[in-house]
Each structure stands twice: as structure tokens, then as C-alpha cells.
Amino acid sequence: MNFSQEWDERFKENSHISIWPWSDLITFVMRYAKPHNTKFRVLELGCGAGANIPFFTSFNNVVYYAIDGSSTIIQRLKEKFPQIKDNLITGDFTQEIPFNDKFDLIFDRGALTCNSTQAIKDCLKNIYDKLNIDGKYIGIDLFSTLHSEFQKGNATEDNFTKTNYIEGPYANTGRVHFFDKSHILDLFAKFDILRLEHKVTKIEIPENSKYTLASWNLLAKKKQFLIEAS
Questions:
Q1: Percent of the chain with pLDDT over 90
Q2: Taking CA 196 as the corner, what is the angle to CA 158 and CA 41, rounded to the nearest 5 degrees?
Q3: Contact (CB, 8 A) for 140 and 28
Q4: DSSP secondary structure code for residue 98 in this structure
Q5: Contacts of 60 (CB under 8 A, 6+ apart)
Q6: Taking the model in full, what pTM does it have?
Q7: H or E, element range at 54
Q8: Contact at 8 Å (CB) between 115 and 2?
Q9: 105 within 8 A of 39, measured Cβ to Cβ
């Protein structure tokens, strides 16, 4: 299983418990993948503490699903949101997305980026297979190689994946994956990338911090391969 057991431990100790929807995600959904008037199925990969659930369930036509590797956090969400408890499951989305339905939108915020290159490739295949025709994927905060933390930690299965962080925002969270543009284009070759934003924030005060926050926001569409008649 690729899911980091460290994350389950962090949730057990009530660490990384985000409860407010991510503003970049709301912007991308409302601007580029706004739910239409008919039934609109949405799947969140790595839902964590459920910060984005209230946003999606506020739409009458949206059917929200989520998969997360932490049984601890999924059980809490089932109790907090009993109206969608059957749509919340524990599992490893890099290996399988065990829902029968296909989706109009699949998204993650800071979940795909917790895996190795091979696991991400496996997950993107699962995403592609589970999207409806014209279905979209939104990835928020895919960590950039310009992030200060990329220079820390230890390389694991590949040079883009680090681990063994003992301090800072990724301390004791297992694998952390970083992307540059060419890496993203390679990974998403089966998709049409409709928008790719690179966010780079340099902390100027205090002056001795010399810290850079950097990540990517991505909007991609399931590419349709047409078979020409011979």
C-alpha cells in the first residue's frame, strides 16, 4: 500500500486537521469545472479532514465521493457527514478507485503529491479510467521543485520524491513529491492540460528566513483518442 501510515498517525494526534475549503480549489471549480444542472459526480482523492466537503455538498446536484488511506479520518468523516457516509471509503487510490460510478470531476489538494513517481503514474491511469467523457481533473498544490523543502529530506524511489523530514511542514508525513513543468507534462501525457499555474512565494520578512513556497495548480481534461478507420 502506497498510503503513508505516518498520515494516519498525524490524524490520530489531531495534526494537519484542515477544516476550511481551499480557496484555489474553489476558484478552479467555479471558473473551469462548475457543476452543471444535472447530476454531477465528484471524487476527492485524499480528502483528509474533509475541508472541501461542505463546499461540494452545498450544491443540490453534486454527488460527492472521497477516498483516503487513513481509516481514522474516514471514520470521523462518516460520523460528521452521515448523509454521505456510504460515499466515503478507506483505500489506496494509487492502486484502485473502488467506485462503480464514473465521475465528471476528480480532484485532489495535496494528496497526489504524497507519492512516488510510479505511484502517481498508476493513480493517473486510475483517474483517466474513472473520468467520464470530457471529465476533468483538478490538482491543487502539487509541490514544486522550487520549494525550499525540495533541497531537504532524502531521495527515495526517484529524484522527485523525498522522505525522512524531521522538521518543518512535512515532518513525519512520509513521502513528499516535487514537480517541475517537464515532469508534469510527462506524467499527464494522456490528458489535455487546459491550465497550469506555478505559484512561487518568497518570504521577505523576516529577512533571515530565505524560504520559498512553490507549488502548481493544474486543470486537465480526459483526452479522447480517436481510432481512424483503416
A1: 66
A2: 95
A3: yes
A4: -
A5: none
A6: 0.89
A7: helix 53-57
A8: yes
A9: no
Helix (H/G/I), strand (E/B), else coil: 89: strand
Round to whole Å and give the CA distance between 90 and 196: 30
Q: Could you report the per-residue pLDDT of 130-164, keeping only the tens digit for each? A: 999 989 999 999 999 999 999 998 988 899 999 88
CA nearest neighbour of 173 among 46, 19, 60 = 46
**Partners of residue 136 on adjacent β-strands:** 105, 221
Reported as a single tens digit per residue, the pLDDT across 62-93 is 999 999 988 888 999 999 999 999 999 999 99
**How far is the C-alpha of 175 from the C-alpha of 177, rounded, in Å?**
7
The C-alpha cell that represents 107 in the structure block: 480532484
Strand ranges in 71-130 using DSSP code E only, listed in sequence order: 88-90, 103-109
Q: What are phi and psi of 192, to 5 degrees?
A: -90, 115
* Contacts of 189 by beta carbon, 8 Å cutoff, 6+ apart: none
What number of helices (H) and strands (E) belong to the chain?
Answer: 6, 10
The answer to whether residues 90 and 66 touch, using CB atoms and an 8 Å cutoff, is: no
Domain ranges of the chain: 5-142+174-198+217-222
Distances from the Cα of 165 to the Cαs of 4, 66, 200, 207, in angstroms? 13, 27, 21, 24
Instruction: Specify the length of the chain in residues.
Output: 230
Pick the CATH number of 5-142+174-198+217-222 from 2.60.410.10, 3.30.70.3040, 3.40.50.150, 3.40.50.300: 3.40.50.150
| Strand (E) or helix (H) holding 163 | strand 161-163
Is the distance from CB of 31 to CB of 52 less than 8 angstroms? no
* Cβ atoms 173, 4 nearer than 8 A: yes
